[in-house]
């Protein structure tokens, strides 16, 4: 399966809606999107994972890299995810303590 990435402004934030699988083959597209947005001055990012069916360690690495990139600009990278299968990956790796994870984009924007 491929990956579909859309970005949109939401108040002071930029939301990246991710659909599909984030794996070794598709993660570079997500990395490129994050790098492009940060390069354009978007340092408050929300990655909406509600449309993600699968996330592997490469995808996690891209998210961690994105977090480091925005933090170097005093920014934030928040996640939106309610899927137990995806949340379990963050829990097992301890990344649920690193990323703010919200149930909805609206909750993330309101932080």
Structure description:
By secondary structure, the chain is α/β, with parallel strands linked by helices. It has a single domain (3-109), classed as STAS domain (Transcription Regulator spoIIAA, 2-Layer Sandwich). Helix content is 39%, strand content 33%. It contains 4 helices and 5 strands, in the order ββαβαβαβα. It has helices spanning 27-39, 57-71, 84-93, 105-109; strands at 3-10, 13-22, 44-55, 76-80, 101-102. A 5-stranded mixed β-sheet has the order 1-2-3-4-5, with helices on both faces. Strand 2 (13-22), helix 1 and strand 3 form a beta-alpha-beta unit. The longest helix has 15 residues, at 57-71. The radius of gyration is 12 Å and the shape is globular.
Name the descriptors:
five-stranded mixed beta sheet; 111 residues; Transcription Regulator spoIIAA
CATH fold topology: Transcription Regulator spoIIAA
Order of helices and strands: EEHEHEHEH
Unreliable runs? none
Mean pLDDT: 97
Question: Given the structure, what is the number of helices?
Answer: 4
How many DSSP E strands?
5
Q: So, the CATH homologous superfamily?
A: STAS domain
Query: Based on CA inertia axes, which overall geometry fits?
Result: globular
Strand content: 25-35%
Distance between the termini: 33 Å
- Compute the number of structural domains: 1
Helix content: 25-40%
- The main sheet orders its strands as 1-2-3-4-5
| Overall SS class | alpha/beta
CATH class: Alpha Beta
What gyration radius follows from the Cα positions, in whole Å? 12 Å
CATH architecture tag: 2-Layer Sandwich
Largest sheet: 5 strands, mixed
């Amino acid at each position: 399966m491929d990956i579909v990435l859309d970005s949109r402004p939401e108040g002071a934030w930029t939301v990246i809606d991710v659909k599909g699988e984030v794996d070794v083959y598709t993660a570079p597209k997500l990395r490129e999107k994050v790098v492009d947005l940060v390069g354009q001055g978007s340092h408050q990012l929300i990655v909406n994972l509600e449309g993600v069916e699968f996330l592997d360690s490469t995808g996690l690495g891209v998210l961690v890299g994105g977090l480091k990139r925005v933090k170097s600009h005093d920014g934030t990278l928040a996640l939106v995810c309610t899927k137990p299968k995806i949340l379990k990956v963050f829990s097992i790796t301890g990344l649920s303590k690193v990323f703010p994870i919200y149930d909805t984009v609206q909750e993330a924007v309101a932080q």
